[in-house]
Amino acid sequence: MGGIVWLLCCDFAVFLTTSLASAYDNIAFGKSAWQQHPYGEILLFSFSRQDVPDWKSATWRRSRFPVRYYYSTEHWKAYKAVDGAFTDLSANGYQCTVSENAKQTATLWVDLGRILSIRYITIYYRTENEEWDFSNQYTKRFLGFSVHISNSTNREDGILCFKDTNYTRATIPNPAKIECLKYGRYVIYYNERIQGVTYPDGYSKYAFNELCELQVYGCPTSGVFGENCNVPCPQNCQEGHCNIVDGTCLGCVAGYKGSRCEEECDNNRYGFECKLICGNCSDGEQCDHVNGSCPNGCDFGSQGDICDKECPVGRFGFNCQDICSINCGVPGTCNRVTGQCEGGCQKGWKDMQCDKKCDRGMFGLNCNQSCGVCLGNEQCHHINETCMDGCDKGYQGMNCAQACPNGLHGYNCDETCSADCLVQKSCDAITGQCSACPNGLHGYNCDETCSADCLVQKSCDAITGQCSVISSDSETNSQCYPSLYGVVSTLCLSLALNIFLLIWISRNRVCKGMCQEEKSTKQLSTEHSKPNTEIYDKVEDNAGYQELGQISQPSHYDKLH
After folding, report:
1. Where exactly are the structural domains of the chain?
2. Residue 55 and residue 253: Cα distance in Å, rounded?
3. Could you say which of 3.30.1490.20, 1.10.3720.10, 2.40.50.140, 2.60.120.260 is the CATH number of the domain covering 2-38+77-220?
4. Residue 405 CB-density burial (10 A; 0-12 exposed, 13-18 middle, 19+ buried)
5. What does pLDDT average to in each consecutive run of 10 residues of the chain (561 residues)?
6. Using CA atoms, how far apart are residues 414 and 391, in angstroms rounded to an integer?
7. For 271, left (φ over 0), alpha (ψ -120 to 50), or beta?
């Protein structure tokens, strides 16, 4: 019954493999192959590390390692696994590879000649033409095998296509069909029985390589996919390789992602599989998706082709173009991004980058000291406080912070106070005006004499010269009390105006009466044709009226003193 099941399974596997692989070529057929520990290998020669024969040139050559020469029979060499003959699965049929006994590892690889896309791999294992079931002793040798795809003969350089971890002597198939949608140049069969490692029940004690045929189905040319291998792979597939069935890329060229490698890297990533992280590009923009370069240069604090290097000491800013200030607390040392000086600024400098001198009347460390009184209130030297053009009035010294001593005044205290100043030639340090004058003197330099009419020792105000006390018999009181004369003058003017107004009103009334009498006289003259002289006599006899502007009698105002 078991034999019938095995035959059915075997026939189904062959049918399935044939139907699936019929559209693809066996790209391993007739290719170069190699196996580890071939059976029948005989050691012919062994040489130490010294001189060894060079058979081609018939000379001796130096060797760093021991050299051994073997002979191996042709019956079971590696090429037997790719010669297309597998009708006889026994050793004596000479269609299978056979490896040496008692070995811990067994390896066989096939070189496809170049990197190609693979669909399936089929392995026919040695059966000695006996029924393939639990009772077949070769099943335990086949258990635990693995298949690798690599671009070198080292399986560890490639990828694992299949590893048996579940089969038993009753379930392991033969032929074994392996779906392997990979691409590579070398197809490597491997098995091991490492001493000291515990393997599942049913495994053989040693590793064997007894492949009767290793078939690799895929496209014979690269860069295509489909059942007829006539559809080009997407443009950005890595090395032009894609899934042999649906055309999805098995890897993307640098800078692209997605199943068909149609999307550029983003999110600040670039390179193969978009695994690399962009540098510090200007304004945080995306770097070139392929090579990582920054299209608009590096952001503040970075440099290099991909802006992945920090500014060196002494430089900062955009593309590290700026130089740290020598006025920093530590000269030439600053923050690589902002340029802010480390340790603050040296004396006389301020701001974050210590690139501005102290101003507004300040100097020194941190610009927290006040300048002296420089000429014209100009800024002192930002470091040492000196006034470049000297001191303003009233001050002296290198920093113009010292007031003039007694007796001196003016610019840089170069002028002497007047000798007439009362207190030790003391005067105002700025104007030079005496602080006090001796009795009897006044004025800017105490060089003017107080009025002789001042009552107390000719004492007067040192600045205005006004008497402190006025003499009672002074005839020149106007010199002492100018304000009194102002008041008197105002009163006199007012009195004169009032008198003039009264006279004008009186004369106006007299003139009006005379005009009326003259009119009456003319009427009488007309009537009697004789002038009336009485009227004129009366008028002339009136002592109160004379010509306009004249007063016959003295006015009582003339008596005002």
Report:
1. 2-38+77-220, 313-357, 364-436, 439-483
2. 46
3. 2.60.120.260
4. exposed
5. 39 41 83 92 54 48 53 81 96 94 96 93 97 96 97 95 96 96 94 96 96 96 91 92 90 94 94 93 92 91 90 90 90 91 89 90 88 88 86 86 85 83 74 78 78 70 72 47 58 80 75 58 48 42 41 41 41
6. 10
7. left
